[in-house]
Design brief:
Elements lengths: L1 H7 L8 E5 L3 H12 L3 E6 L9 E2 L1 E2 L2 E2 L11 E4 L10 H12 L4 E7 L10 E2 L10 H14 L5 E6 L1 E3 L5 H6 L6 E2 L7 E3 H16 L6 E3 L8 H12 L7 E2 H4 L5 H7 L4 E2 L2 H6 L9 H13 L1
Parallel strand pairs: 1-2, 1-6, 2-3, 6-7, 7-9, 8-15, 9-13, 10-12, 11-14
Antiparallel strand pairs: 4-5
Helix pairs in contact: 1-6, 2-6, 7-11
Length: 298
C-alpha cells in the first residue's frame, strides 16, 4: 500500500519540482508518492479529464504543456512510449525546453524487452540488448535518444508491471483467465509500488554521485504464469480452469499477447538491490498479490 511506501521513502529537498510526462499506471503511482512526500508535482496526461492530470501533453494533435508548468523543474520522469516510427514524443516536442530546466535528474521508463529472447537465462545491465519485437526495438531507439540528449538521464528498465487493479486477481475475477503451460517459460515482474520507490531511491543516489546509466527494476522471483495464477486463486478461494498447453492457447492469442510468450528471460535486480541498496517492498508475487488483494477489499 502507498502508506508503507511513504514510510520507507525519503522526501526530495523542499525546492524540488517534479514533472511527470505520461500519467498512466506507473506515472500516477510515482506522482502519488511524490505528493505524499510533499513534493510539488506536475503530471501530464492526454486529457485533462483523466485522473491526476495537471496539464495536457498530446502530440496528436500537438498540445504541449504551458511554459509556466515547465519552469523550475528539477526532476523529470518520462513514462511516454515511443511513436509508431520509433521516435520519442517528449524529445521531439520538448527537448529545447527540457534543456532550459534546472534538471538534477531525468528518468526514462523503458522495458526489459530490449534484451530480447534469452531462452530463460538471466539478464543484467551488462547484457547486450537484442530487441526482437518491434515495440522493443522502438524502445531501444528511444533509450539511445535519451542517453544522447545531453540531459542528466537514467534509464529504468521494467519487466511486467502489476499492482492494485491490474493483477492476476483481476484476471481471474474477470472470468477470462486460463492457466497456460509452456515448458521452461519464465516471466519477471515488478509491483507498481516498487517502481515508485525505486525511482525515488535512484534520485537520491544520483544526487550523491552514484548514477549508473541503466538500472533494471524487477522483483526477486521470476516465475511461471501458472505459479502466479494458482497463488492468486488461493487468495481468492476459487478454482482455476484446467491448465491448457501453449500449443493450443496460442491459436486464439492476439499478436500482442503472443509476443510476450515468444520471449523468455529472467531479469536480475542485483544492481538495484545489492549494489545500490534498494529494499523491495514486494520482493515476490506473494507479497505483491497480498497487497493487491487488500486494495481490492478496500
Amino acid at each position: 500500500m502507498l502508506e508503507a511506501l511513504v514510510k520507507q521513502s525519503v522526501p526530495l529537498p523542499a525546492s524540488s519540482k517534479m514533472l511527470i510526462l505520461g500519467g498512466g499506471f506507473s506515472g500516477q503511482r510515482v506522482a502519488a508518492l511524490a505528493r505524499k512526500l510533499g513534493v510539488q508535482v506536475i503530471c501530464s496526461r492526454r486529457d485533462l479529464t483523466k485522473v491526476g492530470a495537471d496539464v495536457i501533453f498530446n502530440t496528436n494533435p500537438e498540445i504541449l504543456p504551458p511554459l509556466e508548468a515547465l519552469e523550475n523543474v528539477t526532476h523529470l520522469l518520462s513514462c511516454i512510449p515511443p511513436s509508431e516510427t520509433g521516435t520519442d514524443p517528449v524529445l521531439t516536442a520538448l527537448l529545447p525546453q527540457l534543456k532550459e530546466m534546472p534538471l538534477q535528474w531525468a528518468g526514462y521508463l523503458s522495458t526489459t524487452g530490449v534484451y530480447g529472447d534469452c531462452q530463460g537465462e538471466w539478464v543484467s545491465e551488462v547484457s547486450s540488448p537484442n530487441p526482437q519485437q518491434p515495440r522493443s526495438q522502438r524502445r531501444f531507439a528511444c533509450e539511445s535518444a535519451w542517453l544522447s540528449s545531453g540531459l542528466p538521464v537514467q534509464i529504468i528498465r521494467l519487466p511486467g508491471i502489476y499492482g492494485p487493479g491490474r493483477s492476476a486477481l483481476e484476471s481471474i475475477t474477470s472470468g477470462k483467465c486460463t492457466p497456460i503451460h509452456k515448458p521452461g517459460q519464465i516471466f519477471s515482474r515488478i509491483h507498481i509500488d516498487d517502481i515508485a520507490g525505486a525511482t525515488f531511491h535512484l534520485i537520491h543516489l544520483a544526487a550523491k554521485g552514484k548514477k549508473p546509466r541503466i538500472v533494471n527494476v524487477a522483483d526477486n522471483y521470476p516465475s511461471t504464469n501458472i505459479e502466479v495464477l494458482y497463488y492468486a486463486a488461493s487468495l481468492l478461494g476459487v478454482t482455476l480452469p484446467p491448465v491448457e498447453a501453449f500449443a493450443v492457447a496460442e491459436k486464439r492469442m492476439s499478436p500482442m499477447a503472443l509476443s510476450f510468450w515468444q520471449e523468455n528471460r529472467k531479469v536480475s535486480n542485483k544492481m538495484l538491490c545489492e549494489e545500490m541498496g534498494y529494499s523491495l517492498l514486494h520482493p515476490d508475487y506473494h507479497s505483491g498479490l497480498q497487497d493487491c488483494l487488500q486494495a481490492m477489499g478496500n
